[in-house]
Amino acid sequence: MKNTDIEVIAQVKELLTNQKCKIAIVPHENPDGDAIGSAIGFAEVLAEFGHQVNIISPTEYPDFLKWFSSELKILVYSTDKKAAEEVLKQSDVLICVDFNEAKRAGKLEKSILKFANPKILVDHHPYPSDFCNYTISETGYSSTAELIFDVLNSIGLGGFFSKKSAEALYTGILTDTGSFSHGTSNPNTFQVVSELMKFDIAVEKIQSGVYHNFSADRMKLLGYCLNNKMVVYPELRTALISISKQELLDYNFKTGDTEGFVNFPLSIANIVFSTIFIEKDGIIKASFRSKGNFHVNHIARDHFNGGGHRNAAGGEIKLTLNEAIQKFTQLLPDYKHQLLETEI
Ligand code: 5GP
Ligand code: MN
After folding, report:
1. Strand duo 284-290 + 74-76: pairing
2. Which residue owns the Cα nearest ligand 1 atom 3?
3. Taking the model in full, what pTM does it have?
4. How far does the centroid of ligand 1 lie from the alpha carbon of residue 305, in Å?
5. Residue 44: is its pLDDT beyond 90?
6. Which of 34, 64, 124, 125 to mutate to test the pocket of ligand 1 (most atoms within 8 A of CB)?
7. Rounded mean pLDDT of the chain?
8. Among 284, 285, 287, 281, which residue's Cα sits nearest to residue 240?
9. Whose CA is nearest to atom 11 of ligand 1?
10. Which end of the chain has less Cβ packing within 10 Å, N or C?
11. Which residues are 275's β-sheet partners?
């Protein structure tokens, strides 16, 4: 953990190991595998140690993240606001995982900001804002889950791992590295995975749970997006998929159904930049992916009120779908040079 002061680790250790207390863990809204895996993995270890732990997700999360053997309940703030607020009120410590600014917790933002007891952030996104008392922000990590493994060992809780926590942290690493295919995997990633595998985790079951768990509607929606909604700009090495609210309804959309769709166009030879625009209530949710040294987080930050990593970023904008597409196609030529220079 290169960025984190040993003093911060010592303080977090004191907070989490000196006495048993009530802890709330919050991932970002629309949580992905790393956010949910990190929350469950962290929670399982803290519960094993003897804390009373609750996980509160700002929004609903996909079915392909609901097969964990962990029996910890995840409260969903958007559907169970009262219970979630009550849990926060009772908590002695709040831990935020896998996001770098309070805004990323969506409707939970205000409650996080006004939470009066100690707050800890454990995250791997660049440019963290200063909204927690203790910030463990390490951009060199493939995933927050990988970082949590090291944090737990550093604060002396390494003896409290179990199959349940190992499985959850492995899922976070698996999903954020694109099954170990992105450039973010590093020797430590595989070292952590090797430690997690000692808990006899079922890697095949996890792979199936996350990736081979489509509904027929979701598979058809993917086919429709690729066949009818993908536009390729070969001269700009870019592809764009856009999907309207009505089209989602046509395919009985459920939370998480479009997760990962943005990656598919990167399988086209010579494409280095892929974008998906999804129409939600009054806004367009944008996801960006790239290969090599093309920085999609800069595009997300500068044009779509978002952020993220170099090769995976997102944002949202108050426009119609057509306006968003127009904005995108107008700004693309500004990146032509960078797109053509990108080495893969
Ligand atoms: P996804 O495209 O899967 O929604 O998100 C990919 C990554 O982009 C996330 O891990 C997160 O870092 C970042 N990201 C996605 N949406 C937003 C957003 O609205 N704001 C910010 N700041 N980052 C986002
Ligand atoms: Mn992550």
Report:
1. unpaired
2. 287
3. 0.95
4. 10
5. yes
6. 125
7. 97
8. 287
9. 308
10. C
11. 240, 288
Check: CB of residue 51 under 8 Å from CB of residue 20: yes
Please give all residues whose beta carbon lies within 6 A of any atom in ligand 1, as ranges: 32, 104, 125, 287, 306-309, 312-316
Distance 124 CA to ligand 2 centre (A): 7
The residues near 162 (Cβ < 8 Å, ≥ 6 apart) are 44, 45, 48, 199
Q: pLDDT above 70 covers what percent of the chain?
A: 100
39 neighbors 68 (Cβ within 8 angstroms): no
Give per-residue pLDDT as tens, 52-75: 999 999 999 999 999 999 999 999
Residue 252 has pLDDT above 90, yes or no: yes
Q: What's the CA-to-centroid distance between 314 and ligand 1, angstroms?
A: 4
Rounded Cα–Cα distance for residues 136 and 148 (Å): 10
Judged against a pLDDT cut of 90, whether residue 245 lies above it is answered with yes
The string of pLDDT tens digits covering residues 158-199 is: 999 999 999 999 999 999 999 999 889 999 999 999 999 999
pLDDT of residue 46 exceeding 90, the answer is yes
By C-alpha distance, which of 5, 64, 58 is closest to 27? 58
Half-sphere exposure of 306 (CA within 13 A, CB side): 22
Q: Does residue 344 have a pLDDT over 90?
A: no
| CA neighbor of 284 nearest in space, from 312, 244, 326 | 244
Domains delineated in the chain: 6-211 (3.90.1640.10), 216-341 (3.10.310.30)
Both tokens assigned to 76? 């969903």
pLDDT value, residue 11: 98
Q: Ligand 1, residues 29, 104, 141: which to mutate, most atoms within 8 A of Cβ?
A: 104
Rounded distance from Cα 35 to ligand 2 centre (Å): 6
How many other CB atoms are found less than 10 A from the CB of residue 283? 16
